[in-house]
Amino acid sequence: MSKPLKQIHLAAHFPGVNNTTVWSDPAAGSHIEFSSFAKFARTAERAKFDFLFLAEGLRLREQGGKIYDLDVVGRPDTFTILAALAAVTEHLGLTGTINSTFNEPYEVARQFASLDHLSDGRAAWNVVTSWDAFTGENFRRGGFLPQDERYSRAKEFLATTQELFDSWHGDEVVADRASGTFLSDAKAGAFVHQGQHFDIQGQFNVPRSPQGRPVIFQAGDSDEGREFAASSADAIFSRYSTLGEGQAFYTDVKSRLAKYGRRSDQLLILPAATFVLGDTDAEAEDLAKEVRRQQVSGATAIKHLEFVWNRDLSSYDPDGPLPDVDPDVGENHISKGRAQVRMYRDPLATAREWRERAEANGWSIRDLVIETGNRQAFIGSPSTVAKTINDFVQADASDGFILVPHITPTGLDPFADKVVPLLQEQGVFRTEYEGPTLRDHLGLAHPDDVREERAAS
Fold this sequence. Notes:
- The protein folds into two domains: 9-280 and 376-456, Luciferase-like domain (TIM Barrel); 297-372, no CATH class.
- 38% of the residues lie in helices and 14% in strands.
- The chain contains 15 helices and 16 strands.
- It has helices at 34-46, 78-86, 105-118, 133-136, 147-165, 223-232, 243-255, 281-295, 298-309, 347-361, 365-372, 382-394, 413-425, 438-442, 447-456; strands spanning 9-13, 51-54, 62-63, 66-67, 93-99, 123-128, 175-176, 181-182, 190-194, 199-203, 215-218, 235-238, 268-273, 275-277, 378-380, 400-403.
- Helix 3 (105-118) crosses helix 5 and helix 12 packs across helix 13.
């Protein structure tokens, strides 16, 4: 008997100004005006996507003490945007990244419970940690947490918010409007939490929301991050864009679930994916090359190289060869807040490898950054892209994708108009929403049902 086809999950990420967006293109709209977010959300909902995703921008990026062209406008507050989008959409899930290092459980739980009520059960939380002392200055924390302590705090942070969400128990508390009193002796929202990171007690003032708790996403790729997702998350983002890497990540994370009493279908694997469409595969390839050169300006290429070299390279020609000088591996880093955690753990080895590749291929600095940086995950005609996406999902390299267009807010339209119908024709993507909540879209059970299932087993 053949294996039944998996249903594909699709979501849309509205990116800030970064090396994915081509914000300088005449077709690009505002990254701060609400009309851009509303247009983007309506397109995602028209295409029957599971959810819209917003990342969190707590501080403008800088290098060498200056804000640079990858972050020229910042990003509005996540909760404000999602609450506003709840009013202009009916089905689309609303997912936001909120930091567990620089916030407090009571406030975050209250915000997400409120969003879940306002949206009739469409809220989701991407739980992240932060090692960035530069960002931490905004919160008067004067430093950062080591990696093991960041995840320890995140686990307790999430557990504490879940205690708050669960502190209202269905219909136990009934209000008598005539007398203005409660008819039940139940203490609505009462909580007490004592732990390593939080020692709080009181009463949570937002009633149980439609989903019970927001859907929980997690984005860490470290061993600690994968374990955190396996124990606590409903979905995990993946950064792997090749079939083999995707399958390895999928297998690893799913294999961790059993120790927490969870089934494979209780955690979704959703990589982020950029795309470029053309009438033919060749046309799409040509367009993708043009997009990459728009994404990586000469100034951007130099800034990217400076992050690895840890030196001021502003005197170098981005269309010239790589520097002969080696990276500075000293304690102080050119980008504040990143001195202790480097994206490239061995800058000297990275520099040697990049010089060899640049010399072998005749690449300039800009060429190298284009070739080694983020690549479009899906390039081709609509039929090619639809087939590739389906192949990934059916081969257990993912459960779906979070699509990141390079133009906002209109960049999602070609995918919605040309690729989604092909997936629907193949029977691997919905033609209508199955239920009102984000948990319905993702095929996830209500927390109360999961609790009852575990109690019965």
